[in-house]
Amino acid sequence: MATLDKTSPLAECRDECRRTACWEEEGDAAKARAFITACRHLIDRLYDSIQSSGGAQAHSLQLGIEKYERQLKEARAWLAANGEGKTAAGDSPPSVRHLYPSAGWS
Prior knowledge:
Methane Monooxygenase Hydroxylase, Chain G, domain 1, mainly alpha, elongated, 64% helix
């Protein structure tokens, strides 16, 4: 997975979104996090493009932003619901047991 930052070009951000878009099918938390990062950078680049282009292209860029914002929201929700997902070896991560006084712990 590519390392993106605030200077990464739009095409690189879009390519990384495409490479990591399979996070849900694979149940891969690392890909989900990479997808979230790529989407955030891509949305920033699309906003920059709107600022510099204007006109009819701005409308289509806005539609692209809305699409990626929805996908970003879905990835964040999945990651929150599924925790870390699969580990690098493909196994589920170890679970955590919480002990409460009502369960006999004191």
